[in-house]
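Q: What structure does this chain adopt?
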Amino acid sequence: MSAVESTMLELGTKAPDFTLPIVTGGILNLRKYSSRSKGTVIVFICNHCPYVMHINKALVELADNYIQKGIGFIAISSNDVEKYPQDGPIEMAKIVRQENYPFPYLFDEDQNVAKAYKAACTPDFFLFDEEGALTYRGQFDGSRPGNGQDATGSDLQKAIEMLLMGSEPLEKQIPSIGCNIKWISGNEPDYFR
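A:
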């Protein structure tokens, strides 16, 4: 597994809009979805990444808690499914049921959404306020597969709490680390090369 850090998109960046299919049915438009939220977490994940598998349970618990407080959550997989068929929509829908994802899981087939967000790894977290401005990007917490720390989501949780309190974004934001997004051959973005 090749570990890659997130690119740390500039704070204040407006969330690029998108419309993507939900793997369990339907489509989701970000603007429409986020218009009902106090903030929105967008996380790039995939099915097979050990970094994602390590945090899945804690991510579901954190999302369950904050969805009730008005924070929207969206997960997106952008991996090349020809080379990684386990990350395709059918398998994604199975993961939704298996892990009890309380949030929509979207498929970014052409990888344009990942590029718009300068996503680099799985998991890669982005938190936007109700105006669509980026207030946090970085790690879920300090846990990693094999480092002996339990996944809690403490970094993301603190960022969400700051947003809900109307405070300034966290000063210290640590990049996420995980498996690189599996780019379609010849589709690798400039920021990732």
